[in-house]
Automatic annotation (TrEMBL):
SUPFAM superfamilies, per the entry: cAMP-binding domain-like, MFS general substrate transporter
Superkingdom classification of source: Bacteria
Pfam families: cNMP_binding, MFS_1
Membrane topology reported for the UniProt record: Multi-pass membrane protein
Protein's name in the database: MFS family permease
MF term (GO), any: transmembrane transporter activity
All copies of domain Cyclic nucleotide-binding, residue ranges: 433-527
C-alpha cells in the first residue's frame, strides 16, 4: 500500500524544522550567511555592469561583456576547483571572496573617476573568475556540515532561499543606488558584501570528513580532468549538467533580455532593468518558501525538471503579453523555477558525486554555467538585432521546457535510487560507531555495500579466519560464538567484524546465523577509510573495540570465560 502524503500541517512543521536546523548549527549558519553576502554582491554588480555596458554601446555590448566575463571563468572553474578537494574548502572561499571584494572596489574607483570603460570590464572578468570558484567550493562544503540526506536537502533549501533573497535584494539595492547615487555606489556596496562573506567563514569549526589524498605529482590539469571524467562516466551526473546548461543558456539570455525588454519593449528606463531582475528574485523567494515544504519528499528529480521548465515557459509568454505587470509576474515564475533547481539539482549532485571529487564536479558545473551564460548572452543580443525582441523571447523560452520533458523518465529513476540509498544510510547510522559520520562519508559507505544472504545455521565467518569485511544486519538474527561458548545475540541494525579490521588480527570469534540473515557487507578498505579518517568515529571505534576486548579474551590469550559486550555495541 502506498504511503499517504504528509498533511499540510506536517509539511509546515518539516519546513520550519529544515530552516531551524541551519540556524542552530553555527557552521551551517556562517556558511549560509556568507553565501547570502556573496550572491547579493554578484547580482548588484551584474545590474551595475549591465548599465555601464548599455551606456557604452547598447544591447550588443551587454551581450559581449557577458560573454567576455564568462569565458575566462569557464576555464578557471574546473582548473582551480581541485584546490577545494585538496584542503579545507572554506579557505578557498575566503580567498575568492576577498579577491572579488578588492576587484569590485577597484571597479567602483574607476567608474567614480570616469576612467576607461575597458578597465571596468577587465575587473569584471577578474571578479567573475573568482565568483565562479565560490559556488563549487560552497556546494562541496555543505555536505561536510550535514549528517543526513534530509539535512543536506534542508541546507540546499535554505541556500536556495538565501540565493533568492540575494536575487531580489541585489537588483533592488542596485536600482535604489542607481536612482540616488549611480553605478559607483552599486559597485562599492557589492565590494563590501563580498568582504563580509569572507569574514564570516573565518569562524568555521568542524571536522572535515575523510578524503582520499591527491597524489603529490598530480597537477591541477590532471586533477581537473578527474572531475570531467567523473561526469562523463556517470549518466545521471551528465544529465543534470545538460539540464543546467539549458537553464543557464536561458539565464544568460535574460541578462540581455531584461535590459532590452525594460528599455525598448516596456519603455520603463534603466530603473526598470533592476525591477525586472528583482521580480525574478521575488519569485525565487516565494519559490524557496514553497520548496521548504517539499524538503521531505522523495521527488527531487521530478521537482528539478519542473524548475527547469519554469525557466523557459514564462519567457515565451512575456513576448505575447508585453506589459510591465505581466512581465514582473512571469519573471517571478522564473524565480520559482530557480528555487526548485536549487532544491533538486544541487541536492542530487551532492548525493551522487563522490566527496573526493565533489568540488571538481561542481567546478565542471560552474564551467558549463559560465560558458552557457556567456553564449546565451551573446546569441540573444545578436538575435535581438536580427529578428527582434518578441521572436527572440519565443526561441529562448522554448529550450528549457523541451529539455525537461525529455529528461523526465531518467530523473524519476534517480529519485527511486536515492530512496534506496536513504534506507541504507539509515541502517548504517543505527550502528553506534558509524552514526557520527558526516553525510559524505556515510554516503560513500552506502555506495560500497554488498548484499549477502546467510541461511539459518550457517556461519558468516569462523574464529581465526582472516578479516576482510565488516557486516551490518539488515534482517534476521545471529549469535557470536567464542571458544565454543555463545557470547551474545545480534539482530537488525547491529554490526560486527570490526575488531579484526581495526586491530589487523584474525577473527576473535565466530558469527553464526540463528535465523536466515540478510547482511550488507563493507570491504575492509572502505570501512577503515571512513571510520579511521573521521576523528569522532575513530575515537568511538577505539572505545568500542577496547571495551569488547576487555570482556573477551580469544582462544590464543589468557583465558577467562567470555562475557557479553555492552548493549548496542558491535561485535567480532
Amino acid at each position: 500500500m502506498r504511503p499517504r502524503e504528509p498533511r499540510p500541517r506536517g509539511r509546515l512543521s518539516r519546513a520550519a524544522a529544515a530552516i531551524a536546523s541551519n540556524a542552530r548549527n553555527p557552521d551551517l549558519r556562517r556558511a549560509q550567511l556568507s553565501f547570502l553576502g556573496a550572491w547579493t554582491a554578484e547580482w548588484a554588480f551584474t545590474v551595475g555592469l549591465g548599465i555601464v555596458a548599455y551606456r557604452d554601446a547598447g544591447a550588443t555590448a551587454v551581450g559581449l561583456v557577458g560573454l567576455l566575463r564568462m569565458a575566462p571563468a569557464a576555464f578557471v572553474a574546473p582548473l582551480l576547483s581541485p584546490l577545494a578537494d585538496r584542503g579545507r574548502r572554506e579557505r578557498l572561499l575566503i580567498v575568492v571572496s576577498t579577491l572579488r571584494g578588492v576587484a569590485t572596489a577597484a571597479a567602483a574607483l574607476v567608474v567614480g573617476l570616469s576612467g576607461p570603460t575597458y578597465v571596468v570590464y577587465l575587473l569584471a572578468v577578474l571578479s567573475t573568475m573568482a565568483a565562479t570558484l565560490y559556488r563549487p567550493a560552497h556546494s562541496a562544503l555543505l555536505p561536510s556540515l550535514c549528517r543526513s540526506g534530509y539535512e543536506l536537502a534542508s541546507a540546499n533549501v535554505v541556500r536556495g532561499l538565501l540565493d533568492s533573497t540575494a536575487t531580489l535584494a541585489g537588483p533592488l539595492l542596485a536600482a535604489l543606488l542607481l536612482e540616488l547615487a549611480g553605478v559607483t555606489a552599486v559597485f562599492a556596496v557589492a565590494s563590501a558584501a563580498s568582504l563580509w562573506a569572507a569574514l564570516l567563514l573565518l569562524g568555521l569549526r568542524y571536522d572535515a570528513p575523510p578524503r582520499t589524498a591527491a597524489p603529490q605529482d598530480d597537477g591541477l590539469l590532471r586533477s581537473a580532468a578527474t572531475g570531467i571524467r567523473a561526469v562523463r562516466r556517470n549518466g545521471d551526473l551528465a544529465l543534470i549538467m545538460a539540464l543546467a546548461v539549458a537553464q543557464t543558456l536561458t539565464r544568460g539570455a535574460l541578462t540581455v533580455l531584461t535590459v532590452v525588454v525594460a528599455i525598448d519593449l516596456l519603455d520603463t528606463g534603466e530603473t526598470g532593468v533592476g525591477l525586472l531582475t528583482a521580480a525574478i528574485g521575488a519569485g525565487a523567494v516565494l519559490g524557496s518558501l514553497a520548496a521548504s515544504l517539499l524538503v521531505d519528499t522523495r521527488s527531487l528529480g521530478g521537482w528539478f525538471a519542473v524548475g527547469v521548465a519554469l525557466w523557459g515557459t514564462p519567457v515565451v509568454l512575456i513576448g505575447l503579453v508585453p506589459r510591465q505587470a505581466a512581465a514582473l509576474g512571469l519573471l517571478a515564475c522564473v524565480g520559482v523555477g530557480n528555487a526548485l533547481i536549487d532544491l533538486g539539482g544541487f541536492t542530487l549532485l551532492g548525493r551522487i558525486a563522490p566527496d573526493e571529487v565533489l568540488a571538481r564536479v561542481f567546478g565542471v558545473l560552474e564551467s558549463l554555467v559560465a560558458v552557457s551564460m556567456g553564449v546565451g548572452a551573446i546569441v540573444t543580443s545578436l538575435a535581438v538585432d536580427r529578428v527582434g525582441v518578441r521572436p527572440t523571447l519565443a526561441l529562448v523560452g522554448a529550450l528549457c521546457p523541451v529539455c525537461a520533458a525529455l529528461a523526465w523518465p531518467r530523473l524519476r529513476r534517480m529519485d527511486r535510487s536515492i530512496r534506496v540509498r536513504d534506507r541504507e544510510i539509515a541502517m548504517l547510522q543505527r550502528v553506534p560507531m558509524l552514526g557520527a559520520l558526516p553525510l559524505p562519508a556515510i554516503e560513500q559507505l552506502a555506495r560500497g555495500l554488498e548484499p549477502l544472504e546467510v541461511p539459518a545455521g550457517a556461519t558468516v565467518f569462523d574464529q581465526g579466519d582472516v578479516g576482510d569485511h565488516y557486516f551490518v544486519i539488515e534482517s534476521g538474527a545471529a549469535e557470536v560464538v567464542g571458544d565454543g561458548s555463545v557470547i551474545t545475540a545480534l539482530g537488525p541494525g547491529e554490526g560486527f567484524g570490526e575488531i579484526a579490521l581495526l586491530r589487523r588480527t584474525a577473527r576473535t570469534a565466530a558469527v553464526r546465523a540463528t535465523r536466515a540473515l540478510r547482511l550488507q557487507a563493507l570491504r575492509a578498505e572502505h570501512f577503515l577509510a571512513a571510520v579511521q579518517g573521521f576523528p569522532p568515529s575513530a575515537t568511538d571505534a577505539r572505545t568500542t573495540v577496547d571495551s569488547m576486548l576487555d570482556r573477551f579474551t580469544p582462544r590464543s590469550g589468557v583465558g577467562e570465560p567470555p562475557t557479553a559486550p555492552p548493549s548496542g555495541g558491535t561485535h567480532d
